[in-house]
Amino acid sequence: MLLAAHNPRSVGFIYLSHPDSESLQAVSNAVISVLASRNADYFPQLGGDPAQVTILDEPVITPAPPPLTNRFAPLIRIGIALLAGLMLAFFIEYLDPTVHHQDELRKLGVNILATIPKYKS
């Protein structure tokens, strides 16, 4: 939205931001209405006299891209989940190291169906 005063050098811009375009359109229309009708309250340098405000351009509502935090949130969540999963697997292995060898399984009374031999190079 572009504003101009009676003086050709006095041009002002108002930038508004809101995630909902319909609400933003309503707010920009309210800003135009207030500046056109009650501008003496907002320009104290005029001594209470109303300013002649002319709207040069109609408000243009353009959608803004979502913030970076919203765009990268899935990747961040996957990274945190992967890290948490690795940490949990490490702590489970570290805190409960009861089964590493066949002898330990036999002591627990578990039958061994098959074994994978160690790779020797």
What do you see in this structure?
With 121 residues, the chain is mainly alpha-helical. The protein is 43% helix and 8% strand. It folds into two domains: 2-57, no CATH class; 68-108. The chain has helices at 21-37, 68-95, 102-108; strands at 2-4, 11-13, 54-57. A hairpin with a 6-residue loop joins strand 1 and strand 2. The longest helix is centred in the last third of the chain and has 28 residues, at 68-95.
List its salient traits.
121 residues, mainly alpha, 2 domains, 3-stranded antiparallel β-sheet, 3 strands, 8% strand
Beta-strand content bin:
5-15%
Averaged pLDDT, please?
A: 79
Measured distance between first and last alpha carbons = 75 Å
SSE-based structural type? mainly alpha
Tally of DSSP β-strands: 3
The arrangement of helices and strands along the chain is EEHEHH
Could you give a short account of the major beta sheet?
3 strands, antiparallel
Instruction: Provide the number of structural domains.
Output: 2
Instruction: Give the spatial strand order of the biggest sheet.
Output: 2-1-3
Topology:
Elements: E1 2-4, E2 11-13, H1 21-37, E3 54-57, H2 68-95, H3 102-108
Antiparallel strand pairs: 1-2, 1-3
Summarize the structure.
With 121 residues, the chain is mainly α. Helices cover 43% and strands 8% of the residues. It folds into two domains: 2-57, no CATH class; 68-108.
